[in-house]
Structures are given as structure tokens and as C-alpha cells.
Amino acid sequence: MKRTKKRISLRWQLFGGIIITAFGVLVIYIIFMRWVDYVYSTDTFQDRTFYLTYDYEEELQREAYDEIPIEQTGGNALIVYDIDGNVVYQSEESLNIPFETVKFYADSYANELSENSIYVGQPVYGYDRFVIIDSFTTVQGDVRFSAEVIPYQTDINIEAAQEKARWITIFGVIAGALWIFLMAMLMFWYIRRSLKPVNEAIQTYRNGVRPASGSYPIPGEFQGLIDNLNAMLDRVESAQTKQKKAEEDRIRMIADLSHDLKTPLTVISGYSGAMLDGIVHEEDKKRYLEIIHQKALYSAELMDELFAFSKMEHPDFVPDLQRIDYCELCREYLAEKYSELDLQGYPLDVQIPEEHYYRELDRNMFRRVLENLVGNIVKHNEPGTTIRFVVRESEGHLITDIADNGTGISPEIAGAVFEPFVKGDQSRKSGQGSGLGMAAAKKIVELHQGTIQLVNPPDPGVRTQIRIIL
Predict the structure, then answer these.
(1) Strand order through the sheet with 77-82
(2) Could you tell me if 182 and 243 lie in one domain?
(3) What is the mean pLDDT of the chain?
(4) What is the number of other CB atoms lying within 10 angstroms of the CB of residue 396?
(5) Are residues 35 and 174 in the same domain?
(6) Could you write out the three-class secondary structure of 300-358?
(7) For residue 387, what pLDDT is reported?
(8) CB of 28 within 8 A of CB of 172?
(9) How many Cα neighbours within 13 Å face the side chain of 387?
(10) Between vectors from CA 115 to CA 110 and to CA 116, what angle results, nearest 5°?
């Protein structure tokens, strides 16, 4: 799956969503609070069409004050004076509007009293009420002056406004909750949409198909997930490739082993059968026995090599590592090998520094590497071939070159020289070598966190050069 294009950062989009949500809640709050304020500023005021002096004019003229339902007005109060300033009627003992004040307004607007009441503002009776001054004539012909005190707000209207405000508040809370819910669903939908390409890619791979290269518009926060998924897919495919290769190698190893064992076992079976049948002349028996013995040794060597190689392939195998002077290990091996090589006619060109270079090594396993590489030169080259053995240090690494000036390695097998059961034509014809020596050497070096390679082209003066880097 290809690295995808980024959208705007998800955190910024979520932050923007939160800001929009909060702004919407604030707008809803302001709108509904203004509505509540409007209700309190309008609905709580007294209905100014409900005045005692207007609605109960007949009762006032008859002076039937008890018939006037003052308590139902929600807070109105009434005081009535005669022409001399005596109180004729007072609905509340605490109601106190001096006759002089009433007479003053009545005299000031004398021409209007016959038809219209006089409205007197707040200073006459506090700042929460207003006063209506009026005059009327009773049925007996007496003149009366009335002052009606009317509150701006009444308990009845306040309770009604409060009830209305409660419903408005509930409606506002519901509207705010719906807004938050809608924004939450929108952000949830957006996150699901952002994750959809990733889910589709995983589903595609689960079906055994590599997701097609393309650009998925996902937020930047999920790019790390995509990168990790890419890395996981690469590791899975690499593991599958290695597993497939290991399976192919196993099948090829079995086939090669069967082939390499078939030849010596056929010889052993045929020669031993001929001797048992008595068809071998006496003078040929020793030669037959030598061939049988040689083929038996070759088969045993092949099985030993195969056992050692298979043991290293086991996942639980761990080398016995010790801190060893690598240069000293090489000198010890060559000192033991010198007499044998000299007798066989293979001169040594050794260049090992005197310095001490320590590495964590399994002594026996690494001696096997050196033995396999040197023994490979002896098996595949004629006597007189010079074996060059060079150890040097470079940038913290120990480099070992084991080379020869013999026949070299054919280009056909140069690329697979470290594969199991790969042998040159001369080795296969002579029946020498198991074909596992180089593969075992490579496995051992890798177990020591090193590398081994065929140097191509080799250094001047040599035909074959194997390099170990630790």
C-alpha cells in the first residue's frame, strides 16, 4: 500500500468542530435568554385596561365599595376622599396618598376630570407603581376624588411569566442538546469516513490481495498507522517469501540428498552383492573393498554435514558464545593444519596481525567455518595451489579473506555457491564434497551476526576469494 496523501490535520478539524459546537451553544443560549428577558419585561406588567375606576364606575357612584373585587386585581389599591379631604374608603391601611396631592392634581387638570383620569408617574407613589387620579359624582350628588395605585408587576403575571420562562429554558436546553448531538454525530461520521480507506486496505489484504497503490485522503494523524501497516505488510510478505524459499530449499535439499546418497549406496550395494555372489576375482576383492569403504565414508560425511546443518536451522539453536581473540584462533587453526596442507602440496600465504581483536564466538563452530573453506580449496584444486589467508581490521570490522589461485568457480554456480548441495562439476564427478560445507559456513557466520560473500572479481593474483566480515 502506497504512502497516502494527507488531509487537513484531524486534530484541527476536531478542534474546529468543538469551536463550532461551543459557538452554536452560545448562540442558542443568547437567543433563549433574550427570549426569557423579553417575557419578564412584557408579560409581567399589569394589563392597563383593567382599572378599578373604569371597570367599576357604577359601584363607585353607588359607593358600594365592598362589591369591587380589589383582591383579584393582583395588587391594585384604592383610596377615596370627599370634597373636604376626608377618607371615604381605603382598601389598605398602609395606603397613604395625601389629599393635598390628590387635590393638587385634580385642580391642575380640572377641565379634564369630567372625562379623563389623570395619570401620575412614579414619584407620587414609589418606583414600582403608578397612580391614576380620578373624580366622580355619587348617586346622592356628592363629589368624590379617587386615587388608584396600580403596581407595574403583579404576582399573577410574575408566576405566569416564570412558568413561560421555564418552558422556554427547557426548550433551549433541548435545542442545545440537539445541536451538540448533531455535531457529535457529524464528527463521528467524519472519523469513520477517514478510517474507511485504512479498513478497506486491511480487508483487501485479508482476502489475500495486496492493496492497490493509490492515494487515500486520510487525516495526518493516521499517517503513522498507514506507515506501520505498510511496514507490517512488508514484513509479512518478506516472511512469506522466506517461508516459500525455505520450503523450496527443503524440497531441493531432499532431492539433492537423495541424489548424492543414491550414487554411493548403489556402488556399495552393487560391489558388495558381487562379492557375495562370488563373481569377483580374488585379485579384485581388495579394490572392491576400498571402493565400498570410500563410498561408506562419503555417505557418513554427508550425513554428518546434514545433521550439523539441520541442527543450526532449528529455531531454538543458540551458539556457545565466548570472548575470543579472533587472530589467535586463526593462528591456532593454521598451525594445526599446516603439516597436513604441506604434505598434500598446498602452500600457505598467511597475513594475520599481531594485535588482539576480541569477538563473541563459538570456538568449535567457527573452526568449522575455517575448516570448510580451506577444505573446499583442497577438494576442488590440484596440489600446488597456494592458499592465501589474510586477516585485517577496517572501521571496527574484522575482515578475513580466504583465497586461492586454483581453477576458480564457474559462473554458473557463482551466484548460488552458499546454497545447500551446490557443487562444481569436478567435485560431482570425483564424488568429493557433500555440497553442504559452504552453506554451513554461511549459516555459522550469520549466527555470529557476520556476513560471508564471494568476492567478484577477486583480488589480483587469486582466482577464488571468500570474505568473512565480523
Answers:
(1) 87-90, 77-82, 143-151, 129-137, 118-120
(2) no
(3) 78
(4) 5
(5) yes
(6) HHHHHHHHHHHHHHCCCCCCCCEEEEHHHHHHHHHHHHHHHHHHHCCCEEEECCCCCCE
(7) 92
(8) yes
(9) 27
(10) 80
Cα–Cα dist 269/224, whole Å: 65
CA distance 90 to 70: 11
Domain that holds residue 127: 52-152
394 in the same domain as 452: yes
Most confident of 247-251, 415-419, 420-424: 415-419
**Separation CA 18–CA 274 (nearest Å):** 96
Task: Answer positive or negative: Cα dihedral of 286, 287, 289, 293.
Answer: positive
Cis check for the bond before 211: say yes or no (omega within 30 of 0): no
Find all residues with CB under 8 Å of 191, minimum gap 6, and list them: 10
What's the pLDDT at 330? Answer: 93
Same domain? For 394 and 416 the reply is yes
In the DSSP assignment, the letter for residue 449 is T
Q: Within this chain, do residues 74 and 91 fall inside the same structural domain, yes or no?
A: yes
Q: What is the pLDDT of residues 223-240, one digit of tens each?
A: 676 677 677 777 877 888
Residue 267, domain member (yes or no) = yes
Kindly report the length of the chain. 470
Residue 465 and residue 349 in one domain: yes
Is residue 342 located within the same domain as residue 427?
yes
pTM exceeding 0.90: no
What's 126's domain CATH number? Answer: 3.40.1840
Model pLDDT for residues 266-288, shown as the tens digit of each residue? 877 887 888 888 887 888 788 88
